[in-house]
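Q: What residues go here?
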């Protein structure tokens, strides 16, 4: 494990147009390859768009994981370019939908996370996930949370306590707060955070862009515009996230006193 280049693809998925979204994703994976990235993160629900008017619309733009066309395409691209990819997927599993994210690498499909904290009308369309997961890869340990999970500090904490070096954060943010909070979440957990947000408007929702990459010291090391599709990236060293000492006598995990907290 050593220094790697990681990024966020800030895109504008088209609601309900899976073919078009696969083209956009492939185009940005190729760009990430040209820029020599080892890991690229895409927004929440990148295969389908976000603001469904009805359950049937959500259903018609869902895919199985990993058999669906989008994950199969990601497997091909990740293998061809020797890259890790995280992206939000509208997942169909039996008779339910989940707001999920997958991790795919040169070795193929690695795993998925189903969003635990559903935002607004997502509650009409999706089932809830029930656990935060960290995946051990050749480049780093990668944990995943999705968009509104951010407002629950337990999400990032749970991933950090499970050993995540990087939190990959596919998002479709509409509230203006996260970019202020992200440096604190990264600092208090001493992890890298890569937020890939989307842009554009769907019905009454305007997505706020400004994808960011933050270091374990809470520094913003890459930041996107509010309105444009773009790839942002930074060179990082995941080993830095394994050092939880904030002074010579303070370790942010070991110094916790669990009995003092009512959780
Ligand atoms: C959100 O969770 N998509 C705001």
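A:
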């Amino acid at each position: 494990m050593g220094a790697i280049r990681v990024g966020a693809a800030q895109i504008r998925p088209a609601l309900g147009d899976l073919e078009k979204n696969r083209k956009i994703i492939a185009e940005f994976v190729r760009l990430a390859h040209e820029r020599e990235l080892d890991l690229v993160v895409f927004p929440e629900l990148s295969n389908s768009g976000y603001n469904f008017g009805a359950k049937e619309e959500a259903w018609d733009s869902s895919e199985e994981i990993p058999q669906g066309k989008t994950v199969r395409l990601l497997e091909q691209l990740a293998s061809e370019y020797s890259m890790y990819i995280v992206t939000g997927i509208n997942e169909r599993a039996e008779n339910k939908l989940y707001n999920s994210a997958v991790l795919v690498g040169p070795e193929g499909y690695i795993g998925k996370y189903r969003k635990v904290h559903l935002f607004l009308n997502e509650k009409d369309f999706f089932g809830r996930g029930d656990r935060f997961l960290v995946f051990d890869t050749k480049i780093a340990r990668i944990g995943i949370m999705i968009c509104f999970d951010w407002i629950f500090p337990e999400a990032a904490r749970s991933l950090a306590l499970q050993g995540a070096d990087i939190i990959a954060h596919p998002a479709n943010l509409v509230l203006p707060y996260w970019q202020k909070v992200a440096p604190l979440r990264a600092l208090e957990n001493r992890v890298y955070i890569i937020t890939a947000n989307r842009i554009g408007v769907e019905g009454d929702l305007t997505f706020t862009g400004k994808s960011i990459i933050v270091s374990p010291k809470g520094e913003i090391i890459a930041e996107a515009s509010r309105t444009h599709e773009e790839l942002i990236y930074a060179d990082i060293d995941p080993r830095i996230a394994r050092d939880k000492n904030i002074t010579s006598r303070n370790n942010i995990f070991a110094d916790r006193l669990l009995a003092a907290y009512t959780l």
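A: Context that may help when evaluating the design: The chain has a mean pLDDT of 97. Residues 145 and 236 are 20 Å apart (CA to CA).
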